[in-house]
Amino acid sequence: MNFTIDEMSATATYFQTFAFAFFLFTVALHIIFAAAVFVDASKRDTKLVGPVLWAAATLIIGPFFAAAYWVVNRLAVIEELRTLYSQKTELTNEEKIQRHREELNKRRSQS
Prior knowledge:
By secondary structure, this protein is an all-alpha fold. It has three helices and no strands.
């Protein structure tokens, strides 16, 4: 298979165009993920660093770092939900104790 100069030039141009399009796609993806991380981090109390640093790291490293942000901060949200649930359970237990005391007082007053 003999390639002429024109065929090799066309193939090289094709690969250069593909590489440039892939580069633009990657840059756009990094920007989109960094913006999403910044918006989300601005709305909540983030762990470790502030929203700007989370977004900057995501802009440089990309979607893999956005996944790290999600794991670190969403696990914190899960912990907060567990805390809220346990507080609600404690309140429920306190209410049960109060009801039990009231029942004991009623029984004592009836005796």
